[in-house]
Amino acid sequence: MSEPKCEPTKWHELSAPVEGDRENYQKRSWNPVKHTWGPFTQKGPAPVWFADANATNWTESMIAKTKDLFYEAKLNECFDKGDEVAIKIHYGEWNRTAVLRPEYIAAIVEEVRACGGHPYVVNDTTLSYHIFNSMAYSNYQMEGAIRHGYTSATFKCPVIVADGFSGEDDYRVELPEGLILKETYIGRAVAEADAMIVIAHARGHAITMYGGVLKQLGIGCQSKRGKYITHLAHWGDPHDAIGWPKFTDQCPGKACKFHEMCDNSCPRQAHRVLEHGKEWYPERCRLCYSCQVTCIFSGMGGITFEENYFPNAMIAHADAALGAMKCFERGKVGFINCAIDVVPECDCFPWANKAICPDVGILASKDLVALEEATLDLIDQAPVSPGSVAEEKGCKVGDDKFRVVNGFSPRITMAAAEKIGLGTRQYQLIHHEPVLTPENAAKWQIRPDQPTTVRLRETFHRNDLATEVMPFRRAAYNKEWVWNEWKKFDPFKGEPVG
Amino acid sequence: MGEVIWVDAQAMGPENSVGQKIRRLVREAGALHGIDAGARVALKINAAEEGYEYGLRPVFLRTVAEAAAEVTGQVPTLCDGLKLVDYWRRMSGSSFMDVVSRGGYSSDTLGGNFVINGGFSGDEGNIYPCGDADTVLGGVEVGAAVCRSDWVWVLAHVTLHPLFGLSGALVNGGFECLVGRERTRVLAGVNPYVFNGVRPDPRALSGLRRRALEGHLGVRQALEGRLFYVNYAWDVTPQPEYFPFSHPPVGPSQGFLASRDPVALDAVTFDVLAESAFPGGRAAVEGAREAVEELLSLAEELGLGSRTHTLRRLS
Asked: Which of A427, A470, B251, B299 has the fewest CB atoms lying closer than 10 Å?
């Protein structure tokens, strides 16, 4: 079969910057920036609490340890009684399997409520990202959230899309401190909260290499407009592909079996397949990644990213995270990283690759940068999972795993975050190992005050359901087979022992 | 001339339960005509304020949501705007959702995704002109869940209303679909919480009614007329759902009425209420008559529909 012909992309050059109604936005709204916002750590290393993923008894349940860390890290002091407390999580893309189990979120919601806060769970809408996205449109996002078990019934609190029905219920936040961004847009359910607990699934990310709590702020709290600006939409010249997709001139046009998917991938019709290539209107693009992801993950090479785009985007998302933090007074945001199912890609992917390392555990802190550094270090120190992309790429214990797997070191983001005052990269890791005592075993159970067994006594006293039908019918059985035969068979070899 | 279908509350039976009556109403009133597979249908409902205990049972709304889902193949959106809680309680999307949930309304019970029309802030929306009519407002900002849908079915829990006389299709399909700040603009200083000694200046009410109906014109522009109205004449209380309390219903529940003409629908609904009120509720209904008459006349004048109607009653 002959190679398909690829003609150069037909450009419709950008004649001038795209103008909108910028000056009229938010004219009548208040600016939510809190004057007392600022990094939690004033001096020295920040304490980060860590509970590893092993569990052998009641007290070591990951859920129980998550609750322990909430108090150890003093996240209960992030809010006052009566405060509206946003619980920021990622609702997960349709068909995504590596999302946080609802129990982790429910555990924190329960404790926020127990401490007198009014919790509500939030996530913003996303941009399209890929052709079959379920998170860009709030109605679809809620269907996906419900499918993942994220509902008001499981959390016993409202589950809300933070930036409204369409993703434009937001506030503009000025960022004079930003290294790249000078403003961003934050979903109002986040911006209007009194306090926030961020619960992140710590795992990889195709653009920022790694995603933990900082990603939950830097992208997760941004409304649609916030996400566009954080993606660096319209930065630089279209030809440098920093704020636009990169067209490689390697598009075979209609010879590509995915060309209809490609055409449909853009919500703004910024590109169109020609007979042997693409037609491209940069002024229509806002950089949602949808065309790039659709092309790259269908195994094609017509639309991609400029390599230098990634560090730029990583630094920009640290700036955007600052935008979210500026909506809160200092110390009003607490952070939890769940390094569980540490897969290479984001929860906004509609699939999940194998984890690159075994489950690490739970970390909590009030300093988000310290927390991220500690999480990254622990992930790097963890063994490499056999059969994972990390192993495939030759990653060793101690390597910067996400750099090996995704291309750049996530420490680029952390250095930027520290520089703009989001926190400190120095941390003091405090291992939390719950002591097995009767009190601790009972502490986080469904009815801590009364063991279920004691409750059942009363039930059985009134209606002894087992005794009622006794004696159970018992008949003689072949003891030789049940007691001995199975010992003669090696299940691994599929043959008799010896 | 508007056609109104009324499925009354008579002749209940195993083949004619409340749910079956509502399904029949939706079918007979032609709600499903013209709706394509894939269309996004939003159901504007009333989510009661905390303390108001006569809200519609979720299954009454779920039945309609299921009909919408069946014809479109899509999960419908159910929505309501933030109440005017800045006057009563703290305005917050989270507390609104808490109250809604305590009333038994959730995505689990309603047969679709329940969202706040206007987002967490209640202010997410777009501006639409009020049409060619000579209007005071010119244009209104319609909530996002309403204006970004292909169809809106207005499912109104019929009650009396201290400002408009009747809370039915006209109020719920207009004023109630606007974003929070637009409703504040429509109110223009009139306090809607008519209790604890608050009594609005009667001279301000005509202007308010007109502005609220102009809001309905804006909603109609936003939806390009793709609106359908159901009036639930069920537990018709003297106070509307945004009140934090209510007295008992003014009459026995009369069933469900539907039309594409909100003026005809509200006119028939009020007649039905007036004819069936309890002796103890008659004064409240008659007390609302003047306001309702004005509302209907203004609505006709603005071209929202016609009081002249045909009524088909089914049991």
From this structure: A470
